[in-house]
Amino acid sequence: MIGLVSGTSADGVDAAIVNIKGFGLNSKVKLVDFQTFPYPAKIKKEILKASSPDSSRVDQICSLNFLLGKVFAEAALKIIKKSKLKKRDIALIGSHGQTIYHMPHQSSKKNAKTPSTLQIGEPSIIAEMTGITTVSDFRPRDIAAGGMGAPLTPYVHYLLFRNKKETRAVHNIGGISNVTVIPDNNDIDKVIAFDTGPGNMAIDGIISKLTRNHKKYDERGEWASKGKVDKRLFDILMNHPYITKPPPKSTGREEFGNHFIDRILKIAQKYNMSDNDLVSTVTAFTSDSIILNYKLFVLPRFNLSRIIFGGGGTKNLTLLSWLKKGLAPLSIHTMEDYHYSSDALEAMAFGILANETISGIPNNLPLVTGAKKKTILGKIVPGKLKNPFLFQR
User: Which one, 10, 56, 89, 130, has least CB within 10 Å?
Assistant: First the structure.
């Protein structure tokens, strides 16, 4: 299987080839190959424009949907070539696509908007260019069932990291930070998961603005390590209402994207903060917002033994150090300690979710998303009509 995803940071397409034996709780998963294919600067700019109501246009979104379908298909073909496989070796592609807007909640305003979500990267293009059956659009079916359409990876976290002897948390720090808590009784219906708030999104956005896009992130957390936390800005950020909102909850660029970053920069300018102090303060906010969510919503309910961190945030050594200190005495690990790649796991997840879809296995978690029932996520676009893997079960 191939899993394809581009996260909220819109940096590029993560592509993972996974070997999967079986399905459901009997799934045996092994990573074969992984690579990130960065978006050209022009395409990333178009994605960010399309993701904002102030700058998007319907013709732009229409065109970008098909363009990204081609980009995702090319990523699949490149990872096949890199791994020295053939297209005929691939049973299935699972593509999350690129989220450009996510509105999971019914608005209370007079002109209320229907709960909805939009991921682009046309799967018909992927299936046509590769000849491989493609499963896409995983979020909408959960929303149709009354859920938030997110987070989706907790189902995969449960399959890969459950343990009967201890309660574990699997925590991904991507653009957004999300946690999955897996009880020691391994009851899948008792798993909880939610987005705690920003992961790398705010830090990366600040670095990009300060360097005029010459740098995309705080490498190893060096900027943060050289600065001091400004309590004035820190207190303002920690008062964001999402941080203490009880789960189930999910968030994204709509809450912590460019408008949030621009607000931070204005406040920093008002306080005449140095660049290092600004990055240090935003990193402390990211760390403490995660820690606070554990203290409010996880530790009172679960006898948690360990946290397994993954995602790009694990490469920010300052962030990881502050998390370890703030979450002590919990045992802290990374996905590499369990022979999984922190970078690859989210792309792997969509290969796994696609396998569940094609096998007819419900792959959402109602307690996590708020859905009224379990349901099978994803839309299936057939590849070659004689594909022996299509509807094989």
Answer: 89
